[in-house]
Write a structure and sequence with these properties.
DNA polymerase, domain 1, seven-stranded mixed β-sheet, globular, binds zinc ion
Length: about 280
Amino acid sequence: MARIDLHLHTTYSDGSVPPAEVVSLAHKASVTALAITDHDIVDGIPEALEAGTQLGVEVIPGIEISSRWEEKETHILGYFLKWQDPELQKCLADHRISRHTRNPQIVEKLNKFGLSLTYDEVKAKGHSASIGRPHIAQVLVEKGYVNSVKEAFDRYLGVGGDAYIPRELPEAREAIDWIRKAGGVPVLAHPGWTKQKGEDLKKFCKKLKEAGLLGIEVFYSTHHPRQTSEYLGVARHLDLLVTGGSDFHGVTKPGIEVGIGRGNLKVPEKLLEPLKNAACF
Ligand SMILES: [Zn+2]
Ligand SMILES: [Zn+2]
């Protein structure tokens, strides 16, 4: 059955599958349109576009920007971006530098706890400028310091972990701005993450809308049906667009497949048209 998937990561950020292969997996899963939404980087888009042309799958240039709203990490997706826009590329490059200063500090902290690893070993795990904590976690698993990526985050890398270092993130309104200036459509990613519901969630989304947000990711691999219907309600109430995607990462997020998430995700094709109409081409 035809479906779309508007949230996919590749080897250009913390996914394990290269862009062309992600498009091919989507094709096999009867996905007719997809968005590549790597963290803070657009460099995987050309490879995906080329594969999309070959396989007859529509590829939407996208992004997922890590930002913050009142100290809470908030991810903003962007769709139909003019991804070659020099201003956008510069904002993203500056943003990624903050990772590069943080990663070595994390490695140093881990060393102090007696865990032996180097930043070169971490860098060898990624293909791109978007190296992050998942790559550090991979090294810790391989060296046998932890049994899983999840354990690495729980014990060391996540908020409250022994080697946690907060990252300097742009404000959500800045991320929204970057996307709008590049002609794209900014959308709140996985609202389930915010752990907010009811009136709090509505207020939060309303403030984001005032900052320029145009949509909410209602359909998502790990949303409970109850959450999906609540987010749909919020989108309708605030007149925001509805999107959805798997957040596929390959082996770095096991159990989530392109197009179908944990098996029962189905993002309707009809969501694409309004999203396209909101973009500035
Ligand atoms: Zn995210
Ligand atoms: Zn994501």
